[in-house]
């Protein structure tokens, strides 16, 4: 792995806090569970440590989170707050949300400090990187509490199928499949100290090939979360244990029923972004908006709201992340909005289809892995295409460092050609004539 | 108020007698203020009001005296002049040495316009909008506030960038779903 161009993944180099800082509300039960996970002889090669960083007060607020639909009557106060406290919006003279110019991903994240309110305590700030599936990976500021808003929302999603999270063992294992990514053992104060583990199913992430099965069967988590690719790899393991439910995200899941049958548990497909948190979950042919204080619009290219049933860009207004209030944030994803049974749903959500490439040695490489090696190079844009004969062309902007791009892509795929060209904003990022 | 242009007033400031800019301890500032108000048809200062001018911060006191010189022949409202002298000059005095209102052309224009605004008078040859606009451009207090706001904003932005780069932020918190 020494030639792998991601310096951030040096084992444990990014783990800097004490356990007391990681779990301010740690219970004795949680401490026992954590010790068990950390010392498990078949555990993956942990290379990071990560807590929930939730105070007892934050846990209480999350447990009381009102999972209810309501009118967006909080929008005027969010606008007033943004005018007063958010540098980007200071002194604006809006009278309603319709006056707010939508903001795109690049504009929001390239100068993200302009969107952080003046009055938030930066001691509370954490950052997460975006997956890079919508453009160059970027860093999103948030609070631990906003990050953990997933917990009541995921409980809501599985709860609609009558599934309850007990939180009496390992509650959740989130699975990835990448050459290198963080793996860590954690516990959740929200779930009373139940275990939460992030694992990488890539063989290089374990001491021995049989450890993944042994460890995951021993954990026997209530929930798995992952993406269609990593969950397929999980199914390939043929575990004898069955979770209560499986959460799939990050990419379009084409066939939930097939995955569900392979994993022996219902699969719930969720949609969201790092910037917004979870937005919707799939229910049949549509994605139902989650019961959050979040206002979702669908806008046309001119920024005007589309009538119900007309496709446009999913645009989010939400003040739930204190570090990054969003006013008409264009997600880059497309769908139409409709009412169904009194609830707003997204129809025809165009997720980011997973693309895989065949490496020179015949191995299949997922597009997210390509993102991982190319995004550290700071390219403004790029596209990767595999021709029917297996040759791979990487297109980069005219000022890009071709030698570095070539070496980074070759570390995964074998020899590639790198072409310099003007790249349009909406170009399909990954494509393949194979498959 | 005797109609006048800003140029008339800045000329008068350029001719400020050195006595008005002397060490206030050597003068009787309250008496000068009181005489000016009377000259404009007002009442003399009461003892209570006089005490404020007798013991003020030196640069503020000098600015009060220069303003008295400027206003003495203006024919303006003594009540409005008193309000300006008593409460309207502290921010300016904190930023600019008083002698510059006699020696620096921009500061002369500023003080002339500050006085005219306080007296509720539009300078001869200007509209109210032009006068307000022109005062904005020479307004030291406003400029200082804008610069301070810009500096504070840049310091905050730098603090956010630093916080986002800190290892304790990057260790982050566990994520539960993949998006």
UniProtKB/TrEMBL annotation, chain A:
Residues 213-316 form the AMP-dependent synthetase/ligase domain. Pfam families: AMP-binding. It comes from the Bacteria. This is AMP-dependent synthetase/ligase domain-containing protein.
From TrEMBL, chain B:
This is Uncharacterized protein. Residues 143-170 form a coiled coil. It comes from the Bacteria. Keywords: Coiled coil. It comes from Actinokineospora fastidiosa.
